[in-house]
Write a structure and sequence with these properties.
The protein has 458 residues and is an alpha+beta fold. The chain has helices spanning 3-9, 18-25, 29-33, 78-94, 106-116, 140-150, 156-161, 183-188, 198-210, 226-237, 254-270, 282-288, 302-308, 310-315, 345-359, 361-371, 397-403, 416-423, 426-437, 440-455, and strands at residues 65-70, 97-102, 122-125, 162-163, 166-167, 170-171, 175-176, 178-182, 294-297, 316-319, 323-324, 327-328, 330-333, 336-339, 404-405. Helix 4 packs antiparallel against helix 16 and helix 10 packs across helix 19. It is globular. Mean pLDDT is 87; it is low at 1-59.
Length: 458
Amino acid sequence: MSPTDSARQNDGQGRMSRRNFLRLGGMSVLGSVLAACGAATTAPAPAPAETGPTTSAAPVLQGAKVQFLGGPWSFLPELDTVIDEFFLDWGKQNNVTVTFERDAQILPKIQTAIETRSGASIIQYASPPTFLANALVDVTDIVAELDSEGGGYLPAAPFQMVFDGKWLGVPIGQHNWFINYRQDWFREEGYETFPDTWEEVLKVGAKLKAKGRPYGMTFSDQAPGDGNGVPRLILWAFGGKEFNEDGSLALDSDETMAALEFAIRLHNEAGDPGETGFDDSGNNAGFLAGKFSMVPNVNTVYLPATKNDPALAEAMNHALPPKGPAGRFGYGQLPWWGILNHVQGADLDASKALMRDFLSMKNFGKFYKAGQGYILPLLPNYENEPIWPEDPKLAIAKEMFQLALPPGYALPYQTKLSSLIYDKILIGKLFSQAATTGNARAALDGVLKDIEDLKLLA
């Protein structure tokens, strides 16, 4: 049983109980999780607490260069501001030149840096890092310090980041998908709060669609974020999953078929016709335009509404994902930072030092606070830090913090194949094909063939 499955075992709704959350959160990641991969069983001692400046003075870094490469936080540019301000101030204090490059299509830029062994030193990415394993520096030493300070990473962190006994990157948090819905419209249908089961969601959704108020479910392979997250909320709730614990593929199952058949009904009876081709902005735009009654997403629907359409913000609310036959499941995407292994000498020392300083709790809390629930921590000691949204309509973030699971969660750790399935958005393709054609079996057979082709790359 994987650590994540253990956390879910005692809760029939597929969510971490608080007891298991705290128990697992307090585990030493280096001592108990990496041991399963044959890594050292004793974590390095945490660094002494700093009492002076917020960055570590290191004269040996003088003249070093750090080049940051990542995608922009386009939905919440305040996050880029937090990064830029800290990095530039840190560079001045340590006599290090810090530069930035951001591109929404970041993977080609990362691949170019790897192939040319030049350019970027620190990279920011969201897909599991296993397919980049040969190009990344082992950052276990950084993780050990953050793990000790933060009370032990939640199981999703090592699951996503550990490969062959080393940490390929440092997870900077998790995006959690929750339900954004028009509370005023649901009240008109007799629901004071959002329905608790997917079957009830379908029932009321048919009534809403009949009034021109459809759902905006991203059953699509055109959206790296929503296209990976939204379909899994249903796949897992109906008992389907991508893999078994032994690494074998589990997708071809009665449970997957049940999830797809339900998704077809949800699309046809309650969903917007265009949802099978949404990109990551499609459901946001539709909801903000007053078209959709419900979309699963992070807080990037609500926050723009508070600024640009206060009446809409007042009319909407958030809820946990509904339950299915297998329980209630949340989905989490883990963006991470890694260091490319062509970086050497003082540049490598500077990259590591910068990551250590910025990701320490005393500094990184500002990043979480700026996100207002857009990105949530993976270290339980943040639970009592002043980083959580003050808006009561975003209070659900603290529950999602404990509920979310990563893609391929039944595996002990992510594999190259599971990360490629994620990167190619194949679960989004599966649901898109099923909903578009109405043929769940053909959609599943097509994606199973895609996965067989991916095995040649894994």
